[in-house]
Design a protein that fits this description.
The protein is of the alpha+beta class. The protein has five domains: 12-380, TIM Barrel; 384-466, Immunoglobulin-like (Sandwich); 474-488 and 722-813, Jelly Rolls, CATH 2.60.120; 497-521 and 645-718, no CATH class; 523-642, Galactose-binding domain-like (Jelly Rolls), CATH 2.60.120.260. Helices cover 15% and strands 36% of the residues. The chain has 13 helices and 57 strands. The strands form 15 sheets. An eight-stranded parallel beta sheet has the order 15-12-11-10-7-4-3-16. Strand 8 and strand 9 form a beta hairpin. Helix 2 (82-95) runs parallel beside helix 3, helix 5 crosses helix 6 and helix 10 (333-345) packs parallel to helix 11 (361-367). The longest helix has 17 residues, at 197-213. The chain is globular, with a radius of gyration of 29 Å.
Length: 815
Amino acid sequence: MKKIYRTESRLRWPAALAAGALALGAGTAASTAHAATGPAPASSPSTPAAAAKTEEAGSAPYMGWSSYSMQVYSGDGKWITADQIIAQSDAMHGTLQDYGYEYINIDAGWNDGVDGNGRPVPSETLFPDGLQAVIDHIHANGQKVGLYFIPGISPEVAEADLPIAGAPECSTGDIVKQPVQQADYWGIGHRIDFSNPCAQAYVDSIADLIGSWGVDFVKFDSVTPGSGVGDLTLDARDDVAAWSTALERNDIWFELSWALDIRYAEYWKQYADGWRIDWDVECYCEKEALTTWDNIARLFPKLADWWRHAGPDGWNDLDSLNVGNGQMDGLTKDERRTAATLWAVSAAPMYIGNDMTQLDEYGISLLTNREVIAVNQAGIPAHPVSTGTSRQTWYAVNPDGSVTVAVFNLGRTDADIAVSLEALGIDGSAKVRDLWKGKNLGGVTGEFVAEDIPVHGAALYTFSPERKTAITLNDDDARLGYDGEWNRNAGMEVPARTQDLTVSVYDSSAGGEAPEPGASNVVVLNDSDSGIVYSGNWGHSTGRGLGDYQDDVHYAEADGAAFEHVFVGTGIDWVTETHESQGEAEVYLDGVLVDTVDTFQAEGRGAQQVVYSVRDLPNGTHTLRVVKKTGQFMLLDRLDVVQEGVLDIDHVAFDRAAPADAVVTLLRDPGELVEVSLNGESLSAGDEYTLDGNTLTLGKDLLASLPDGDTDISFRFRGDLRDDVHWTSADGASVTLAFTGSSVSITGAVGPDQGTAEIYIDDELVDTVDLHSDTRLTQQELFRSDTLKKGEHTIRIVKASGEVLRIDSLSYVTR
């Protein structure tokens, strides 16, 4: 009989569920690539020996079921008995399996002790006939099975100094990192020393063991940076690399959890098939509900950052899709369909946490809609037109030129949601199909209106462009394939910008006085601004009479509640109240934790206090996210956004008693000026204003026609498409697009730091274009070919010379 080494039972947060009882092992690693969304990580893992996962692994999001939601709902971490798992497997086989659901994943608490080599032993209490019998039953149903692990090695296993299977020269006591360090979020295990080859041997021995059982999937929890820790005081990247190597040779899917740090996205993509991007979806409201709407709504701003990182290299995991049980779900019918829509268009693994023996008719209809499943399995994550509204449009351009379009009503009233074809990159007309209803809606040009989308509701469509329609792809589009070293933005982009010039009209002969002209690029956003996205439970308090900006604030009481704002500019201030009822909040900028601010004030109350400010950002698109950490309340009063100045002044005066032209200097190249407008109407160049180089003159006749007082004249400047670019400094780096059409064009940037690029169509060099310019200009047509034969083609752009090559957009015309 094998000797079983019992270990102390530890509990996973919150304390209702066992954390799998053992920290088992970890591994070696390669140095991480820098993520495009943030700065370089502070340090790299220790040993560059582990092999990355194969390209074939995780070619589409997986579909299945996980036990964890039911473990939480039941309040019993040991809910995962053989009878329960077999019942779930049989229920999937009878209802969902024909639609692609195949994984049965057993979460925390499945094991009980270790064998004589320090490897996990399944619980005999949970599985009296052995876990192998359960696995065999799952496989007999034509399904796959998953198990749960965490980083590190338990103190008991280390102290027992057990021999490592397959490595007689190694023992578990030799692989603990010295001095002893914590390995996981809960403090269950010790960190492993991966400079010792025995560490990889230990992880290999565990992976080989579960591989021999027939395990097909591993969920690896408490992965850091992430899991509530982003400062590298906990770092499981070595564990991730080692487990990736060990699992890959056993053909086991590797899923990371939870709330992974986006700064290391390229590292997770290198070694895993999927990664959780946020906290648990469960509401931890035992026997009341599986989840809540707030836990769904908070995913939208996360996905707005993460969507670019999903694809055949790995998938953004949104946690369990709990929409199948009706009242148990904790969501309304509309919210259930919204969640299913979000998972589908995000190409997120579609695994449910429901009790599959109790699926209701509506839940089954959501989970078995073949057209919706096809959207998910196509593996093209959607992205938002804008997150600056509660009525959002998300879309993804498919290889056949069709566009998957989801509309979401995150607001508080039913609404019509208008979808601009131009915003989707469609210049022409398209046929629309409603995927949830399975109904063709006819053709549309210009704008489509999704009518009567209910509160927290959604709709899902396919827009199929008709013949001779131009399709434009932004540099972010998943259909573009980048080869070589590429980066995104990092100050290389030029955002579009509109700045108002205030004209103050007065009459000095009647005693009027001229105001002082000046320059100010601060845009003030009240807490009620639609561009601020709130997640968690927030209230809106008005008329407080406490000195608030516009006499109102938003407030949250629950830790973890957050607000987020995507802005274009060079800085931002968080302005709020300070008071004894308030505490600390974490401030994230572009996905990076940059500060923890304290809004506590021992005595009195501070109104309109700047508690966080940054003014030295590269001009471009940025995201501010603030998360409540402590205190009774967290408040938002206003945000002050500092924008790049495009005019030298923002205020001029016109004296009727001494009429004169007004002169402003453009701070951008005059070729980037798109429009000068008054009250929404374009002014006439050469008549109402003139432009000479960077000097723009507003005629005195125009100014005299303005009413007394202040009037704003708007100056709109072009930027890179959607304010972003991809760029490379490596000669030979390339980007490729496969398309079906009769013509193709490239639109993008020229500038003093750019050189030449080679253009290949169907692998034939057709042109070398010069992208050098004395000034930085955006959205310039760089190449066009209108003589292609109808059919399938590829276009490839290769950097040939210059400091950088920027990629902005590619367009083609459907056949």
